[in-house]
Amino acid sequence: MPTDYILFVHGVKVYDQKVFEELCRLLVKGIQESITDKSRTIKPIFFFWGDLNLPAQQELVTRIEASSKWNEFWFKDFRTEQILEFVGDAALYLSRHVGTQVVQRFQQQALSQLTNVQTSDRLHLITHSWGTVILFDILFARRWEDPILDESVRNSVKALRNILFGLDPNPQSGIPIASVHTMGSPLALFSLLNISGNVNGVSTHDLTPELSTLLANLYNLRQKPLAWCNFAHPGDPIAYPLEGLKPMLLASSKDYVDIKDVITDKGNVFNMPFRQKLLPLLWGGEAHGSYWDNKLVGKTISEVIRSTV
Fold it and tell me: Among candidates 176, 189, 283, which has minimal Cα distance to 236?
């Protein structure tokens, strides 16, 4: 029987690998409980990168707090525990130094587990928060093809991309992606780099060309669009819808993917009057981390996995 591999990639504010894997297993449990076909083999793969950014962020917080005017700022905890960590993770990953470390870690943790797959096996991607951008950037962004990069880094990226069916240099080999599940994803914001990263008419962070190629090859293989569920808690300030971004992200390949935004919480009579106010932002971090044990998320992913062949 084929194996359903599930690749998990975490987002911001995850600095302990054991904690990350425990969160993943919560979601795996919810998925398995909803799968009635017990003949399916589910194999999770955990990609942890959160410790690579920690020293630089801690140094930045120390220097900010050393300012003589720091105590006069409002929302100090929100600045250092929410905004700084999200923006810091983004800035550090986009830097070549930390970005290269993430690529090397990804190769160590994922490549070895996907090199001996069978042609009938399937790969499902589950990404949280900034992890969505990291995975898509490694797999599809042009910046990793830059000759200025060390050859070992470019080779690592090539090896990772070569795992997947539909990507060069061997598009007809590798494991096919069967579904994509993004949770609390800021991918909509990252799409702006297609414009701001433009150098000499070429966007170094543009995901569209390689992603479009992958989707077209997957469609030719299965003759149906790739299932993509974008889970968003309405109180999560990092989560954004993706359905309307298909033309921007996918260009002419937009018909090869079926993106569905899934709202994971409808709110209640107590918080509904405040949903467009700033007050709910104080609990934004809780909403951002709510996907792992959400029953709707587990049930929806299991339904998609059951439908893949």
Answer: 283
